[in-house]
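Morning run. Coffee first, then this:
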Amino acid sequence: MTEATKRDMVRGRLLQSLPKGGVVAEIGVWEGDFSQRILELCQPSELHLIDPWLYLPEFSNTGFGKKKNEHLMEQRYQNVVARFADDPRVKVQRATSEVALATLPDASLDWVYIDGNHNEPFIGNDLHLCLQKVKPTGIIAGDDFNWQTEASGAPVKAAVEAMMLELGERAQLRLMANQYIITLKR
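And here it is:
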């Protein structure tokens, strides 16, 4: 079994555990494959796909910062728009998470999945922005909890753990391999 297959299986289990029929957002869409799985497995009433689709070479530790993707970002965006053009539930927002989430009312999302820029301060900002936009009993989930190493700061893990410290008893963290699920409580 390949690593991608294992990852897909874990992400499928994660999606199966999330509420169905809700208003949701995905931060970091890339080519829309996971977005398609969200639609199929969770049947959201509304799905906000948020990604700037920008080549940022200063983040060479990410897919969108790799030289090989320099001229592919516009095509990725166009492909995602075309892929979901006939689905009225899908709202494609070509913007940073900060800009796109600002267009949504506070406490309007049932859950969000974060797979955007894993570097700080971006992952920490995404978590805090999502905390505003997710309902008080909503879910903030995401990918790559163990991304990077402890020596390099493990920014996703550090940001999630910092948020959990901040939230205390108001949230519960569950890990599924490299996926994290923060369930908020009143």
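Helices lie at 3-17, 33-42, 73-83, 97-102, 122-133, 155-167. Good start to the day.
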